C-alpha cells in the first residue's frame, strides 16, 4: 500500500491543501500584522511558521515521500501550535475591547479565521506526513481510511464559512456574490460529512469540493475587485490593499477543499480494493 | 480658461445638472418654463425640501426646487481645509439677541444644494416614541399630530435610502429593523465613551451614522478622513446632495441653484408662485403649490417677508405663531486629558453614543431627554472651543493645542422646550437682495439650565471614570434649529397640519425642521427626512383623491 501511486496522489492533494492554507495564512497575516505594525513581537510567529509550512508541504507536494522526518514534524507541530496560540491571542484581542464579545469587536478585532487556517495547515500537513510514511494513525485519527481526513475537511470548511459569514455580514452582503462562500462550502462540508458517515465517497462530493476549490480562487478575484471599490481603488493600493477585503483570505477554502479531495481519493481507493 | 465657480455662476441649467459622483460630470435635467405653472415649487433643497422634491417627482409631479446656495460636486469642491469649507454655512447677516443669543453658522445652517446635510455630522437617530406625545405621556411640551408608529415606518425608509451604518442591536426603544449597513469601527474617542458608560453602569452603542461602511453604487466606503462636519470629499457621506437629489433629477425634477426666493405670491387666498433672484435679476416661477423648506430661520423669514394685502401678518400666520417657538438643542460638553494618544479627529466624530438619559426619566429634576456622543473636533473648531469655551489665549492656547492628540470629550444633544418668546422676526435692515433680514431671539429657561447641569456633570463623571484628568466643561454651545412653524391638530395653536399643509393657504406647504412641535433629545435630520417622506406620500394620496 505504501508504494501505491493513488496514495501518492492523495498525499499530494493533502499536502497541496496544506500548502495552499499556509500560503493564504502567510499573505494574510503578513498583510494584517504589517498593518498592526507588529506591535506584539509574537505577530511574526505566523509568518515564520507558515513559511516553514509552505517549504515542507510544498516539497511533499513535489515529491510525496522524502526521507526526512524531523523537519516536517517540527513544522507541522509549529503550525498547529502557532495557530492555536494565535486563536487565543485573537480571542483576547476581541474581548479586551470595550463592549467585549460583541459584533463590532468580532468585525474589527483580530479575526479568528487566519489562525484557524494555520492550525488546519498544521493538521493537514501532519496527515500528509503520516500517509507518506505509511503510518496508519495520527494520534486517535486513522489516516489511511480517508474518513478522518474527510471529517477534518468538513470541520475546516465550517470554521472557514463561519469567518466568511461573519465578515460578509459586516459588509452587509452588499454584493450578491458574497453569499457564495456561505452557501457552497457548507453544502460541500455536509456532503463530505455524509460520505464519511456512510463510508461512501460520492461523485457529488467531488463536484462540490471542486467547486469550493475554484470558488476560493475566484473569491480572491472578487476581493481584488472589492479593493478597487475603496477610495482611490488600486491606484492607492498601498492603503487599500490593507483596508480590504483581504485578497489572500478566500484561497483558504481552496486549500481545505483540495485536502478533502485527497480524503475522497483515499476512500475510493480503499473501496475499490 | 473660465474658472468654474459654483458660487458665482449657476451650474444647473441648459438641460443638465452637476453629476455629484464624477468630477466635472453632468446628468441630464428637465427644465420647466416660468410662465407655466409647475405642480410644486419647493424653496430649499435640504433635508426637508430635497427629500420632498424626490418623493414628489417620483410620484409624477412636476417639481422645481430652488436653493440659494451653490451646486457642489463633492469629489472636487471640498478641500481638506476647515477655512475653505466655511463656504458651506449660511453666513448672511442676521441679528441675534435674547438672554442667550444663538451663534449662527456651522452648528445650525447650511447654504448649498443639499442644505445643511452637506456638512451635517451624519448622526441619524430616531426620536424616542414618547417624544411625539410629550404633553400626553410625559406632561411637558406639546404633542405631535403624528403617531410614532407611522414615523417608525418612515424612519425605515430614510435609513434604507441613506444606507445608515448602525449597531446590530439598538439598546433603547422599541424594536427597529436592522440598519442597512454594519457599524463602523470605534475610534479611540468613542472607546472613551464606551469605557465611561460601562464604568457608570449604563448602555452605550455604536452611533447610527449616514456614512457608508460598505460600497454602495459609485460611493466608496468611509475612509475615516475626519472632515465630517464640513464637506465630505469622498461621497461616503450620505447627504441629501448625493442621495435624494440625484433620484429627484432622474424622476424629472428641476433644481435651480444660486436661486434665492424672496417672496411667495398669493392671489385669492392661494399661492400662485415664487419670486426668486438668480443671475442678477428677480424672476417669477408660476406654481400650483408652493413648499417652503428653508429651515427654522429662513422659512419664517420668507413667510413674513411675503406679507401682502391678503395676508398682512405674513403667510400662514393666522395663529400668529409663524416665527415663534424657535428651538435649538443643547450642545454642552465635558473634556479631559488622557495619557493615550486619542487623535479624536480621526473618523466621524460621533462613533459612540448613549441615549440612556433620553429614555430614562427617573432621577431628573427637569423635563426632556438628552443623548451624548464622543467628539472629534478639527483643529480650528478645537481652538475656538479652547479660546471661547475655556478662555485660553496666547501661549496658554498654543500649549493646549499642542496636547490636542490626548484630549477627549463628550458632547450632549439636549432637548430645549418650545417657548413662544424664542422667535424669528424681521429686522428693519435689508440684505444684498433687498430683503429684510431675520432677528433671532433666544433665551434658555430654568429647565434647560437644569438639564445642562445634570448632563455636563454626568459626562464629566464618565470621563473621570476613564481616568481623564484636567477636566473642564464647555458650557456655551448649541446645535440644530427647529420650530417656528409648528404642526398640530388645531389651526389656532399651529401653523401647519400633520401633512405639513398650511391651515390658512391650502396650496402652501412647509416641510423642514420648522414644523417640529418639540425637538426631542436627538439630532433632527433623520426626523426631518422622515416627515418629508410622509408628506410626499400624503400629497400623492391627496392628489389621487382630488384633495389638493
From TrEMBL, chain A:
TM segment ranges? 42-61, 73-94, 106-127, 148-166, 178-197, 204-227, 247-267
* Entry keyword set: Membrane, Transmembrane, Transmembrane helix
Question: Record keywords: Transmembrane included?
Answer: yes
Q: Which domain of life is it from?
A: Bacteria
Q: What is this protein called?
A: Uncharacterized protein
What is the source species?
Stakelama saccharophila
Automatic annotation (TrEMBL), chain B:
Name of the featured protein = GMC family oxidoreductase
InterPro entries, alphabetically?
A: FAD/NAD-bd_sf, GMC_OxRdtase_N, GMC_OxRtase_C
The record places domain Glucose-methanol-choline oxidoreductase N-terminal at 108-329
> Mind telling me which PANTHER family this protein's record contains?
LONG-CHAIN-ALCOHOL OXIDASE (PTHR46056:SF12)
Q: Where is the composition biased (Basic and acidic residues)?
A: 1-11
| Cited Gene3D superfamilies | FAD/NAD(P)-binding domain (3.50.50.60)
- In the UniProt record, does the keyword Disulfide bond occur? no
Q: Per UniProt, which keywords does this protein have? A: FAD, Flavoprotein, Oxidoreductase
Similarity annotation: Belongs to the GMC oxidoreductase family.
Annotated region Disordered: the residues are: 1-21
Q: Which residues form the Glucose-methanol-choline oxidoreductase C-terminal domain?
A: 418-532
Could you tell me which Pfam families the record lists for this protein? GMC_oxred_C (PF05199), GMC_oxred_N (PF00732)
Amino acid at each position: 500500500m505504501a508504494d501505491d501511486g493513488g496514495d501518492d496522489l492523495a498525499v499530494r492533494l493533502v499536502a497541496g491543501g496544506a500548502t495552499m492554507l499556509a500560503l493564504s495564512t502567510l499573505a494574510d497575516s503578513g498583510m494584517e500584522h504589517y498593518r498592526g505594525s507588529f506591535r506584539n513581537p509574537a505577530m511574526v510567529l505566523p509568518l515564520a511558521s507558515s513559511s516553514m509550512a509552505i517549504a515542507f508541504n510544498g516539497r511533499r507536494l513535489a515529491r510525496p515521500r522524502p526521507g526526512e522526518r524531523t523537519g516536517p514534524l517540527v513544522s507541522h507541530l509549529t503550525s498547529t501550535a502557532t495557530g492555536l496560540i494565535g486563536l487565543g491571542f485573537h480571542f483576547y484581542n476581541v474581548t479586551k475591547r470595550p463592549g467585549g464579545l460583541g459584533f463590532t469587536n468580532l468585525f474589527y478585532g483580530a479575526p479568528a479565521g487566519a489562525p484557524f487556517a494555520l492550525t488546519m495547515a498544521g493538521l493537514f500537513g501532519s496527515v500528509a506526513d503520516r500517509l507518506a510514511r505509511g503510518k496508519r494513525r495520527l494520534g486517535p485519527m486513522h489516516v489511511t481510511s480517508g474518513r478522518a481526513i474527510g471529517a477534518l475537511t468538513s470541520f475546516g470548511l465550517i470554521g472557514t464559512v463561519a469567518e466568511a459569514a461573519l465578515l460578509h455580514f459586516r459588509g452587509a452582503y452588499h454584493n450578491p456574490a458574497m453569499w457564495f462562500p456561505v452557501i457552497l462550502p457548507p453544502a460541500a462540508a455536509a456532503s463530505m460529512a455524509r460520505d464519511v458517515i456512510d463510508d461512501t465517497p460520492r461523485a457529488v462530493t467531488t463536484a462540490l469540493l471542486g467547486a469550493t476549490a475554484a470558488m476560493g480562487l475566484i473569491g480572491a478575484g472578487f476581493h481584488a475587485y472589492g479593493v478597487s471599490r475603496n477610495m482611490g481603488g488600486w491606484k492607492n493600493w498601498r492603503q487599500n490593499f490593507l483596508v480590504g477585503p483581504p485578497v489572500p483570505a478566500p484561497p483558504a477554502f481552496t486549500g481545505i477543499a483540495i485536502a478533502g479531495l485527497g480524503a475522497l481519493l483515499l476512500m475510493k481507493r480503499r473501496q475499490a480494493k | 480658461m473660465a474658472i468654474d465657480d459654483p458660487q458665482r455662476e449657476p451650474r444647473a441649467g441648459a438641460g443638465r445638472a452637476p453629476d455629484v459622483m464624477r468630477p466635472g460630470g453632468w446628468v441630464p435635467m428637465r427644465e420647466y418654463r416660468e410662465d407655466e405653472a409647475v405642480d410644486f415649487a419647493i424653496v430649499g433643497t435640504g433635508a426637508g425640501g430635497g427629500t420632498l422634491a424626490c418623493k414628489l417627482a417620483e410620484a409624477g409631479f412636476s417639481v422645481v426646487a430652488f436653493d440659494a446656495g451653490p451646486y457642489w460636486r463633492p469629489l472636487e469642491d471640498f478641500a481638506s481645509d476647515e477655512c475653505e469649507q466655511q463656504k458651506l454655512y449660511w453666513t448672511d447677516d442676521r441679528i441675534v439677541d435674547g438672554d442667550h443669543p444663538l451663534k449662527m453658522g456651522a452648528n445650525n445652517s447650511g447654504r448649498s444644494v443639499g442644505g445643511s446635510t452637506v456638512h451635517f455630522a451624519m448622526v441619524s437617530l430616531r426620536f424616542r416614541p414618547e417624544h411625539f406625545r410629550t404633553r400626553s405621556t410625559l406632561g411637558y411640551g406639546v404633542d405631535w399630530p403624528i403617531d410614532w408608529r407611522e414615523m417608525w415606518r418612515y424612519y425605515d425608509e430614510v435609513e434604507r435610502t441613506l444606507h445608515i451604518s448602525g449597531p446590530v442591536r439598538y439598546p433603547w426603544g422599541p424594536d427597529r429593523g436592522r440598519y442597512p449597513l454594519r457599524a463602523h469601527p470605534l475610534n479611540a474617542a468613542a472607546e472613551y465613551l464606551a469605557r465611561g458608560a460601562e464604568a457608570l453602569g449604563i448602555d452605550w452603542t455604536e452611533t447610527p451614522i449616514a456614512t457608508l461602511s460598505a460600497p454602495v453604487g459609485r460611493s466608496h466606503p468611509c475612509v475615516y478622513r475626519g472632515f465630517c462636519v464640513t464637506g465630505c470629499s469622498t461621497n461616503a457621506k450620505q447627504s441629501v446632495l448625493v442621495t435624494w437629489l440625484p433620484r429627484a433629477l432622474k424622476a424629472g425634477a428641476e433644481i435651480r441653484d444660486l436661486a434665492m426666493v424672496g417672496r411667495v405670491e398669493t392671489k385669492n387666498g392661494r399661492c400662485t408662485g415664487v419670486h426668486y433672484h438668480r443671475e442678477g435679476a428677480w424672476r417669477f416661477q408660476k406654481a400650483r403649490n408652493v413648499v417652503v423648506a428653508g429651515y427654522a430661520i429662513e422659512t419664517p423669514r420668507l413667510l413674513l417677508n411675503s406679507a401682502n394685502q391678503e395676508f398682512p401678518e405674513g403667510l400662514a400666520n393666522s395663529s400668529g405663531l409663524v416665527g415663534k417657538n424657535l428651538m435649538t438643542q443643547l450642545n454642552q460638553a465635558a473634556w479631559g486629558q488622557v495619557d493615550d494618544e486619542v487623535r479624536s479627529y480621526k473618523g466621524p466624530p460621533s462613533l459612540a453614543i448613549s441615549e440612556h438619559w433620553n429614555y430614562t426619566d427617573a432621577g431628573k429634576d427637569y423635563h426632556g431627554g438628552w443623548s451624548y456622543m464622543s467628539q472629534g473636533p478639527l483643529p480650528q473648531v478645537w481652538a475656538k472651543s479652547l479660546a471661547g469655551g475655556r478662555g485660553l489665549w496666547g501661549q496658554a492656547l498654543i500649549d493646549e493645542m499642542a496636547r490636542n492628540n490626548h484630549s477627549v470629550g463628550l458632547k450632549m444633544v439636549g432637548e430645549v422646550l418650545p417657548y413662544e418668546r424664542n422667535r424669528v422676526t424681521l429686522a428693519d435692515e435689508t440684505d444684498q437682495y433687498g430683503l429684510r433680514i431675520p432677528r433671532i431671539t433666544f433665551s434658555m429657561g430654568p429647565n434647560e439650565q437644569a438639564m445642562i447641569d445634570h448632563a455636563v456633570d454626568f459626562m464629566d463623571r464618565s470621563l473621570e471614570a476613564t481616568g481623564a484628568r484636567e477636566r473642564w466643561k464647555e458650557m456655551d454651545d448649541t446645535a440644530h434649529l427647529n420650530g417656528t412653524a409648528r404642526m398640530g391638530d388645531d389651526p389656532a395653536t399651529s401653523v401647519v397640519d400633520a401633512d405639513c399643509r398650511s391651515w390658512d393657504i391650502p396650496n402652501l406647504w412647509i416641510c423642514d425642521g420648522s414644523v417640529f412641535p418639540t425637538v426631542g433629545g436627538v439630532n433632527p435630520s433623520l426626523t426631518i427626512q422622515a416627515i418629508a417622506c410622509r408628506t410626499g406620500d400624503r400629497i400623492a394620496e391627496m392628489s389621487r383623491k382630488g384633495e389638493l
